Amino acid sequence: MNDDTIAAISTPLGEGGIGIVRLSGRDAVSIVEKLFSSPKNKKLSESESHKLIHGFIKNPSTNTTIDEVLVTVMKAPKTYTKEDVVEINCHGGILPLREVLELVLRSGARPAEPGEFTKRAFLNGRIDLSQAEAVIDLIRAKTDESRRVAVEQLSGGLSEKITSLRDRIASICAHIEAYIDFPEEEIEPASLESILNEIQDIKNGLSILSNSFEEGRFFREGFKIAIVGRPNVGKSSLLNALLNRDRAIVTETPGTTRDLLEEYLNVKGLPVRIMDTAGIRETHEMAEREGVMRSLKAIDDADLIIGIIDGTTPLNNEDMVVLEKIKDKKNIIAINKSDLPPHPSLPLKGGGSGWGFENCLKQYSQNVLMISAKTGEGLDTLKDKILDVSLIKSQKLVGATLSEDSYREVRSPFDESEGVIVTNIRHKVAIDNGITALNNVSAALRSLLPLEIVAMEMRDALDRLGEIVGSVTTEDILNRIFSEFCIGK
Question: Are 154 and 168 in contact (CB under 8 A)?
């Protein structure tokens, strides 16, 4: 356990109704007591835990009042870090918060590192490592579904599942090592078959968790969508329409967008990272050429491409370049400007069609629809299609149109994984490595290799899963995880 006391501002800097300076550590109460003055002469060290006390923070060297505050003393071990914690509730301005923090630091605390409060909660055994990582997921959640998944992991859903599987592996490992201690005995065929069946069942459970990552990561990172097309087809207008605000500059001049614009969008519970890209075309202008290169990279990185076509003009070479780029990716083709008279080659709303425009597009995508970024026509259909495409592998909902309520019913919980979803690539890698180790165990048992090799692989599987909950970890892993946190959490 750390002996030093840390402090940080735990609320966003700026003007607000309230701001909090948080301390954690052995000397948290005594440090604040040097600065705190109560009108009723209450002592923080004598106060009841988890109660607010009104008073003032004063500079002891000048006896000047810095702020009127409410102080909460929370005594170990029933705190976030399992250490003594003090929270000073100040008025939410930059100046009083900074002055209070400076006084606290001058009185014996040190500045907290990013995520150090949560790191102490982990090191002191209040939460495991996967729960600690869920804290940052909860802070960054962009939709109700993202929040629900993070809360589920923070409450220990993944930890319990992993711990249960580790316990089963440990039981098999103890069984194997018992035979090592008595080399004159051999594993009977019936017992060997039972062990192999148990290992296979454990692998099946791990595989379900691993397979949930493809959809689960969307809730953590966002489903990445790139809007692409030639200049002036309405990419920026579509971004603005989906966001319901003017995020991107829209002009009649081709090439206005020179860089990637990225925003988060809530599509019926699915957090979407949507990118507006520069128009793809041949250009000799340096800034625009760099924008085109970034657009092409966005196509490679995105989970879904929305290719925009101008429905009022015939397809040209620039359109065909875009279509060729996206045809082998998961994509939707949106024919924009449905509020204007269509080009004669466009399929008519009444069912007729021109010289093959529709068939041409279907060569590049099975998801072709008409929209108007100006009026909003077709945007709900586009959102439903985004959901359909994102759910193809797990729910087989291609072509379905989901309301928000029915989406939640289908999506939550994941029946196969019993509501436990893997959202973190670190967890998936550890699970996959655990499966590999168990495959090695099965192969070694079937090949009648020495049981010492079997036990070694079993312990490797235990260690791999232990990396998820933090029972097996390194300082490097901890530093990498907690460096993503904000200071004060």
Answer: no
Question: Which of the residue ranges 111-125, 179-193, 250-264 would you say has the lowest mean pLDDT?
Answer: 250-264
Distance (Å) of CA 424 to CA 195, 252, 428: 30, 43, 7
The one-letter code for the residue type at 217 is: R
305 vs 228: CA distance, rounded Å: 7
Alpha-carbon distances, residue 123 vs 320, 448, 476 (angstroms): 57, 41, 14
**Model's pTM, two decimal places?**
0.74
Asked if residue 189 has a cis previous peptide bond (ω within 30° of 0), the answer is: no
Task: Give the position of tokens 């035979």.
Answer: 179
Domains annotated for the chain, with CATH where assigned, are: 6-112 (3.30.1360.120), 131-212+423-482 (1.20.120.430), 221-402 (3.40.50.300)
Tell me the chain's radius of gyration from C-alpha atoms. 29
Residue 55: pLDDT over 60:
yes
* 4-8: average pLDDT: 95
Strand positions, DSSP E, 144-288 = 223-228, 261-267, 270-276
CA proximity to 416, closest of 393, 387, 432, 385: 393
Picking from 373, 334, 377, the residue whose alpha carbon sits closest to that of residue 241 is 373
In degrees, rounded to 5, the angle at the alpha carbon of residue 225 between the alpha carbons of residues 237 and 217 is: 145
Q: Tokens 């005995």 appear where?
A: 185
Highest mean pLDDT among 84-88, 126-130, 149-153, 303-307: 84-88
Closest CA to 282 of 255, 313, 251, 310: 255
For residue 282, give Cα distances in angstroms to 185, 254, 259, 288, 319: 75, 12, 16, 9, 12
Query: Residue 260, by phi and psi: left (phi above 0), alpha (psi -120 to 50) or beta?
Result: beta
406: pLDDT strictly greater than 70: no
pLDDT, tens digit, for every residue of 357-387? Answer: 556 788 888 888 888 888 888 889 988 888 8
